[in-house]
Amino acid sequence: MNNELVERSEQQEVINNEEELAKKLYRLRKLKEEQAIEDERYQREIAESNEWYKPSKAKRTNQIDDVTALIEDYYQRRYAEDPYYRYKDRNGTVSKKTSTDYDYNDEELINSLPDELLKTTAKKAELKKLFQSEKVDGRKKIITDNDGHPITEDGEIIKGVVVKEKTEVTIKTTK
Fold first, then answer.
1. Which domain of life is it from (predicted)?
2. 115 half-sphere exposure, CB direction, 13 A CA radius
3. What is the rounded CA–CA span in Å between residue 22 and residue 34?
4. Residue-range definition of the domain harbouring residue 114
5. What is the pTM of this model?
6. Comparing C-alpha atoms, which of 60, 99, 64, 63 is closest to residue 171?
7. Among 37, 61, 85, which residue terminates a domain?
8. What is the rounded distance in angstroms from the CA atom of residue 2 to the CA atom of residue 121?
9. Rounded to whole angstroms, how far apart are CA atoms 158 and 76?
10. What pLDDT, in 10s, does the model give residues 34-76?
């Protein structure tokens, strides 16, 4: 209550002479000293709590990694048996996410593309449209040769691009 009165009176005051100015400078200096003491104590408490927290966090992180590895291993085995396998219950879901990565070698790509394709496909996104694809499990899959090079609709192999399919296990827990 007393602090509120001091704050109200400071907001309404106007400095009229040098004596009042000296008092306000003294008050400002003391407030800054109090703040420095509070900041130092805060930093010390944060450092102490971090030292206490680090070992338990490291242990818990290792446990989370172990459980995640077990879940991913189980899912991979079930997925090998049933490509449509997905698990869902009140504790969370386990599913897969398949993505396609393209590794481009620009120099080799320019050398391997025919001249008419070089003129019409200036961007890599336009080049991807030329790749021959098929629908597998409801998603578009690029047809490649044994080395991972995509094949165009005309049957030409594009040597400057390597297509990699990546399947990730997605684990989502409920909150």
1. Bacteria
2. 0
3. 18
4. 93-173
5. 0.55
6. 64
7. 61
8. 75
9. 32
10. 999 999 999 999 999 888 888 889 999 999 999 999 999 999 9
**Residue 11 is encoded by which pair of tokens?**
């907001």
CB atoms within 10 A of CB 58: 10
Residue 144 lies in a domain: yes
156 and 107, same structural domain? yes
143-170 pLDDT per residue, tens? 777 777 777 776 777 777 787 888 888 8
Where b means 16+ CB within 10 Å and e means fewer, 124-147 reads eeebbebbebeeeeeeeebebeee
Domain membership of residue 75 (yes or no) is: no
102-137, pLDDT tens digit by residue? 777 777 776 666 665 655 555 666 666 667 666 666
The answer to whether residue 145 sits within a structural domain is yes
Q: How many domains does the chain have?
A: 2
Q: State how far the Cα of 70 lies from the Cα of 63, in Å rounded to an integer.
A: 11
Average pLDDT (84-88) is 89
In a domain, 67, yes or no: no
Unique residue bearing structure tokens 């790749």: 131
